Amino acid sequence: MQRASRLKRELDLLAAEPPPGITCWQDGDQMGNLRAQILGGANTPYEKGVFKLEVIIPERYPFEPPQIRFLTPIYHPNIDSAGRICLDILKLPPKADEQETPGDLPDTSDSEVHSMTKKRKAGQPGSPEKRFRPGAEGLAVRPGRLS
Questions:
Q1: Full set of structural domains in the chain with CATH
Q2: Has this prediction a pTM greater than 0.85?
Q3: What are phi and psi of 117, to 5 degrees?
Q4: Do residues 126 and 98 touch, judged by C-beta distance below 8 A?
Q5: Using one digit for the tens of pLDDT, what is the confidence trace for 94-125?
């Protein structure tokens, strides 16, 4: 019941106030089967592109993230050839030190995401530099050196 009422409320809000360049609609009878369309951003390699996505909302939503997949082929480092998206917020389960509740999820508006990146400190959970810290200098290739 929680899933249905929350999903209905979120779909109504999405229809009333869609994010710029994004449309989303229910696909068929199932409330949890959605389709979305994203317009490529101005001054990007995706400008003038129209990208269709499939969104599947799991039964345990909002405690499990939606499954989102690009139906339109797109070249992007975080999207594989099957359209699957590599994005931390879409993964489950979170690590113990990164545990968040659905109410803690960040607002995805441009200003909030932008300010979130300014606030992130080295060593915080999810900080990308943590993956590259050990031995990174030894892996760098210097100009003029092939090994």
A1: 2-100 (3.10.110.10)
A2: no
A3: -70, -30
A4: yes
A5: 555 555 555 554 454 443 333 333 344 444 44
